[in-house]
Amino acid sequence: VQLVESGGGLAQPGGSLRLSCAASGFAFSSAAMGWYRQAPGKECGLIAGINSAGGSTNYADSVKGRFTISRDNAKNTVYLQMNSLKPEDTAVYYCAAGGWPLDYDCRIESDYWGQGTQVTVSS
Length: 123
What we know:
Blueprint: E1 2-6, E2 9-11, E3 17-24, E4 32-38, E5 45-50, E6 57-59, E7 67-72, E8 77-82, E9 91-98, E10 117-121
Parallel strand pairs: 2-10
Antiparallel strand pairs: 1-3, 3-8, 4-5, 4-9, 5-6, 7-8, 9-10
């Protein structure tokens, strides 16, 4: 099992970034996928989830209306489009696979988690 995030980096407040997570080694099209984040000194948790077919999504209140999760089952990839970024979005972002609905809590040690990508929002 491998989940590899990319697309993180430095963005200005109000800017955008698009994260990608390429998955392999498991039945991606049968798995719900989620994006989690952990900011320094804050709880790690689910911010966006999408079911296996892509027909259902959910978002944390903190990102609703600004972030969009999507997936391409033909490419075994899940995306997180992040718009109107704020400094408080600064965190390490992880993608993970699981059942629907996804657990809120992080399980970074799980095989079905990526290594994370840093997102920093600063002027």
